[in-house]
Amino acid sequence: MIIVIDYKTGNIGAVFNIVNRIGIEVKISSVSDEIAKANKLILPGVGSFDNAMKNLHDMNLLPILNRRVLKDKIPILGICLGMQLMTKRSQEGKMPGLEWVDVETVRFKFDNNNSKKIPHMGWNSISITRNNALFNEVDENFKFYFAHSYHILCNDEKYILAKTCYGYEFVSVFNSDNIFGVQFHPEKSHRFGKKILENFLKL
Fold this sequence. Notes:
Rossmann fold, eight-stranded mixed beta sheet, two-stranded antiparallel sheet, 6 helices, 26% helix, globular
């Protein structure tokens, strides 16, 4: 059973739909007993960092998530805001993140000579920096849909699986043990995103 974690943010239904089309048993849930039985977890998200963290606190989801991810070591995939919540902190808010990975979330910052707009929205490619099962049958011709104003900053290269260029290079996929994060939206990326999800579900 795959659980898509429901913590009252956007895009959860779209993630459920694409996993369901892959043919894997999937459920949207915020029930601790159901999360405790999951084989894998997906943490999607659209919205603001502090509001999302407040929801996780208010819904008492942190104890079961920390146990499943940090103790039981089941695979979890963070998508966009879900990826950013896995970090220590974000420049978007004041609350601490889940702190599962020793990285942080920062806002795009361009100099006056750069005409790039914030947020970064639309299709873009990824440059794979390290082999991983998440990228089976994925190549650099694949395009993914992005919609974000903040991105991950990794001081340690060991967490970086892929980068994307938008004004400058930023981390678009990271991994720490059983924890995976993608800055793009696989649920909006057609067959390219579906392939990433298929690979995650096979881990």
